[in-house]
Every structure is written in structure tokens, then in C-alpha cells.
Structure prediction request, 464 residues.
Amino acid sequence: MSDRYGTFVQSPVGNKIAKNLGLPLPAVLDRFELGQKLVRGSVLFGAASGTDQSLSQSIARILVDVHAEVYASDAEDVQKVLAEAGVETKSATGHDEKYKVLLFDASNIKTTDELEQLYEFFHPVARQVAASGRVIVVGRPPESCDTIEYATVQRSLEGFVRSVGKEFKRGITAQLIYVEQGAEANLDSTLRFFTSARSAYVSGQVVRIGTGESVDVDWTQPLAGTTVMVTGASRGIGEAIARVLAREGAHVICLDVPQQQADLQQVAGQISGSTLLVDITADDAGEKIAEAAKKRGGLDAIIHNAGVTRDKTLAKMDEKQWNMVININLASIAKVNQYLFDHDVLNEHARIVCVSSISGIAGNLGQTNYATSKAGVIGLVEATAKQLADSHQTINAVAPGFIETQMTAAIPLAVREAGRRMNSMSQGGLPIDVAETIAWLATPASGGLNGNIVRVCGQSLLGA
Ligand SMILES: NC(=O)c1ccc[n+]([C@@H]2O[C@H](COP(=O)([O-])OP(=O)(O)OC[C@H]3O[C@@H](n4cnc5c(N)ncnc54)[C@H](O)[C@@H]3O)[C@@H](O)[C@H]2O)c1
Prediction:
């Protein structure tokens, strides 16, 4: 589906008209391309002063691994941590070129007075962020802080990050990463995702990293040697997920309904994957998935993407429309998961990723059935995450906002245009944006992520 307005404002005339009329100015977003550097520009790193350097140390090691060009303040603590990790640092003093990434370790901010350090770091460089830049704040989960004031100010970081996401424009994203004490080594996959172009359409998110076990991976192909199942893989977001996971090295079993056989075979053929034709609401769906998975030594990930809409206001909705949406979008996931757990189909570090929706967070006119199903997906993920806490398996969800697919092409024009623009990026996302986010959650290196609901919505105003 083409975004004609988005294309128009890229032209000099269109840009001028949009500016004069105060209309949204969607930027062309950087997107990941094979062979490109992970961080396409320089990083400005800073940290609040304090005694616990463990998060900064972990960040510094990752910056070395990704060969980032790092600038830092002359503060003694920061210089010491970077030098110890072997980061070759340039001084930020007097540097007036744009940074691609502003990265701040706020974990030592424990009092309201110390919140000033956030201002001191970001204020001078607020206009110095490149297009499609990244603002990342790292802190400690408020629920694990040992004083009320520490919990309070760590929670404050959320308001800061979400506001920056709305203020900075030009495709710049802002995220908050809470890292549990002892989970510092699990930061790697998340920092790589958020500093790179892979997170193009993810902004204003709060992610929690826990102490779950991660597996070391080869970052050029983090899913090498794995087998993953993607439901609804014949088109749209599911097709993009299958393609990205294959690009990352996975063997993908592409599942869809028998009517989609031709499209499904085409996708699977192009990525050297395999196909499984089954309706996920069928009584034997779990069994068939298990059978196909066991032939390949079990599943390292399953992506529950298949979903449908049957939009009608509640008064006009018939029972069939209600039941169909609940069954496909929610009940089938619960049933399949239960079957896979009961029959030991998921491997030791298996990742389950569900596709929810911002409708499940904010609700939506004409979508009582859909929003019920997608809110249920969030409930399912949160409850299952608790059950998996003592294992090495994880479950997380993505909640896409407006993504350009056949599903959103069917929305009436005025509603579609509103949906597209009502976010910090002033544009719809692409299926690949959801797929990249899922690839991050699905890697064996993401063992610290369990129970997260990550919105891929360009920081939509809905349910924000
Ligand atoms: N497009 C968006 O803007 C958007 C926003 C939020 C969430 N989502 C969610 O993303 C997912 C994919 O959406 P999409 O836009 O790519 O939709 P789509 O309609 O293009 O693709 C959905 C796929 O699921 C398959 N499917 C449907 N019922 C099935 C069943 N019973 N068994 C097996 N496969 C089945 C379809 O055949 C199709 O291939 C859905 O869960 C959807 O709710 C989409």
C-alpha cells in the first residue's frame, strides 16, 4: 500500500506546502541493510555519577564489540569505565557534529536532585541528533529499587523518554531499558537492536531485561542452526517475519491455511524453508505443528502471527464474527502452546513471540472482538512468562500499530489516513519493522527478555 502523502512531502514543493500548512512531515526512516555497520554514525555516551558501574561496564563492552565511534564527556567515572573496557573515546567537548546515538546510563540516579544529571547530559545535545537517530536511557526496574525515592526517580525516566520520542522528530526514536541487577550481561541483543536501524518504527518503549539465561550467538547470523515456526506466513507481516528470520540464519517452517498454499510455497521456496498447511483453529493443529517440528529436532522459536479482523460495531456484530476472531487470534495460540509444552516440542532456549496489536492496548471503534482477542494475547504472554520464569524459555509479544498491509489497506480512506499519521513518525510502519522486532525477541541471545510487550507503532498516540 503506497503512502502518497508521505512520498509527496519528500519533494521540495510538497515539503514547502506541508511546512507552511503545519502538516505532518514524515521522514524517510533508516532501515537495516545487510553489510551495513550496526550503528551508522557516532555514539555519545554518558552516565550518572555513582558507585555502581556494572551497567556502564556492560554497555562499554558492547560498544567495543560493535566497533562504534564513541564520544564521551570528560567526567572521570565515564572515562575510566570506557578505558577499562578498551573503548577508544573521543572528547565530546567542543564536538558540534550530529550524533547517531545518545546513550545514557541513569542507573545511579537515586534522588530527585540527581535527576538534574539527565538534563545536563541531554540538554546541550538535544539539537545534535542525526535523522533516524537513537536516544536510549538505561536504568533499573523501579519495582526492584530499595528505596521509595530510588523507585520514584527510576520511574520518572519513562516520562522523559516518552517525551523525547515525541519532541525530536526526523525519525528519531527514544527508548528506556530497565536492567535488573545481575542481568547486565543480557543487555547485548537489546542494545544492538535499539542502536541500529532494525528498530526504525519502535519508539517510546520501555523494555525490562531480567536474569534469564542467554545463549552466545554469532551476531552475523544470530539464528543460525535454529528451527522456527511462523504462523500466517504466506503474506503481509508473517511473510516478512519468515524472510527476516531466514536472513538471520533460521530454518523457517511457514504455516498457513490450505487456501494459501501457492503463496506459502512461494515464500518458503525463496527462503529455503518448509511449509505446513493447517488451519490453526483445527483440533489437530498442535499435533501437526509438533509433528513437523520434531522432524527437525524441535522448535527454537514459534511466532504466533496468524490473525484476522472482522470489524463491526458491537450492535451490528454477529456471533460468527465474534467467535471467529477470538478463536483464530487468541484461543488457537493458547491451545497450540499448551500442546507444545505438554509434548516437549520446544527446545531448551525456545522463544515464543505473539503478535498482539495496539487495539488490544487502546481499544478501537468497531473492534470489540479483535481488541478482546489481542488484549487476551497480552494476558496470555504475561501469565505464561511467570510460568516460564524458572526455565530458559521465554515468551514476549509485539503490538503493531498501523502497518502497511492488505489488512490496513481495507480500512476506509479517512480512518486509514488518521491511523497513519497519529504517531511520532507521522507514517505507517512496514511489515519488516515488525519482523525485525520479532527477530530480536526470537534470538537465543535474548534470554533476559520475558513477558515484555513491545509496541511497533512509531509511538502511536493511541493507548500511549
Ligand atoms: N497490519 C496491521 O496494521 C496490524 C496491526 C496490528 C496487528 N496486526 C497483526 O499482525 C498479524 C498479521 O497481520 P497482517 O496485516 O499481515 O494480516 P494478513 O491478513 O495480511 O495476514 C494474516 C495471515 O494469517 C493467515 N491466517 C488467517 N487465519 C488463519 C488460520 N486460521 N490458520 C492459519 N493461518 C491463518 C492468513 O491466511 C494470512 O496469511 C495479525 O495477527 C494481525 O492481527 C496487524
Observations:
- The chain has a mean pLDDT of 95.
- The chain has 16 helices and 14 strands.
- The two ends are 25 Å apart (CA to CA).
